Structures are given as C-alpha cells and as structure tokens.
C-alpha cells in the first residue's frame, strides 16, 4: 500500500485544493484573532464586543469551530480591532 503525503492537514481532509486553501486562510485568521484576544488579556465578553460579535460566537472561534466562520466574517472582525489583512498570491505547491 502506497503511503500518501500532503502539504498540509487541510490538503489531507478537504476534497479539493480550493477548499483546502480556503480552510488554510480561515485558520490563519482565526489564530490572529485568538492572539489578539489573549494578547490584550480581555474577557471573552469584552473581546467579543470589540470584535463586533457575541460572546458565544467568540467562544466558538476560540474553540476552533472553523466551519462556523466565513473569510468575510473573520476579515471584518480583525478590521474592527485595527488589524489589516493583506493577501499574497503565489504559485500552488
């Protein structure tokens, strides 16, 4: 049996390269939001207010529920706290 290797976990669990790329970017944005919350040492309620979401929604994010967040929602949350999201496009691996 041939062993399959993948560039990332997303490539292994997603059906298409496009879906894997979307998940990879969402995961990166969620990590940035978590860094913001932890770095500011805010309560979830205070952080949620600054991010423009409810505390239960922020809790979903902090618990890694990636399927509940679109790229747009994550970019908007970061924008509300003064973070700029930039895009870099490169050749696929």
Write the layout of secondary structure elements.
Layout: H1 9-13, H2 17-40, H3 44-51, H4 55-62, H5 71-80
Helix pairs in contact: 2-5, 3-4
Task: Give a structural overview.
InterPro entries: Cro/C1-type_HTH, HigA2-like_HTH, Lambda_DNA-bd_dom_sf. This is Transcriptional regulator. It is a single chain. This protein has 93 residues and is mainly α. It has one domain: 434 Repressor (Amino-terminal Domain), CATH 1.10.260.40. The chain is built from 5 helices and no strands. α2 (17-40) packs parallel to α5. The longest helix is centred in the first third of the chain and has 24 residues, at 17-40. The radius of gyration is 15 Å and the shape is elongated. The model has no long low-confidence stretch (mean pLDDT 87).
Question: What descriptive keywords fit this protein?
Answer:
93 residues; mainly alpha; 434 Repressor (Amino-terminal Domain); elongated; DNA binding
- Strand-pairing-aware structural class: mainly alpha
- Name the helicity range: 55-70%
Distance between the termini: 24 Å
How many separate helices? Answer: 5
CATH homologous superfamily classification: lambda repressor-like DNA-binding domains
Largest sheet: none
Which regions have little confidence, pLDDT < 50, spanning 5+ residues?
A: none
Number of strands: 0
CATH topology: the name is 434 Repressor (Amino-terminal Domain)
List the helices and strands in order. HHHHH
């Amino acid at each position: 049996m041939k062993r399959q290797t993948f560039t990332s976990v997303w490539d292994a669990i997603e059906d298409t390269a496009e879906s894997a790329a979307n998940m990879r970017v969402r995961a990166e944005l969620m990590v940035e939001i978590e860094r913001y919350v932890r770095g500011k040492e805010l309560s979830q309620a205070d952080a949620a207010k600054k991010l423009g979401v409810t505390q239960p929604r922020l809790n979903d994010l902090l618990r890694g529920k990636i399927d509940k967040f679109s790229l747009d929602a994550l970019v908007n949350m970061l924008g509300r706290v003064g973070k700029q999201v930039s895009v870099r496009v490169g050749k696929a691996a």
